[in-house]
Amino acid sequence: MTxxxxxxxxxxxxxxxxxxxxxxxxxxxxxxxxxxxxYYGLFHRLTTAGSxxxxxxxxxxxxxxxxxxxxxxxxxxxxxxxxxxxxxxPPGLAPLNPRDPNPRLIRVASAFALLQEGRYIADYDLSAVxxxxxxxxxxxxxxxxxxxxxxxxxFPETTVFLAALLLADRWTRRG
Length: 175
Description:
By secondary structure, the chain is mainly α.
């Protein structure tokens, strides 16, 4: 089991009452931890997969490449895939994505954006009231996104997606 799987499994356990307290309905802190863990599970799955091309250079290089992924840049790429799956890149970069992306890839991108929003609320908006149903829905999204990603990880369009998560903000620079 990978670190990503463990994080999402932990999130599910928190929602299902396996949080070390007396059990029962999770409180606000537990729900916030679940949302954060679910997001980071998908985040780590994507960044780990996206850094694998650097593994040939040794673990220190692969690890450093993993740290180069940025939350905001990844969100922008995911939003672009959800908004316009046939054309997620500017016209000059269209050849990188020559066909319609797999629906599972779009679901992964959508889940990432929704989970990031949930994690932001959980970690930074302390006035927000987190509902158990909302947290459970997002944990379910993370579980589905991991399964979807695993099913398409070897597809060429997924490789382009992973490269975009790391490099898209640099691809549009001139000079």
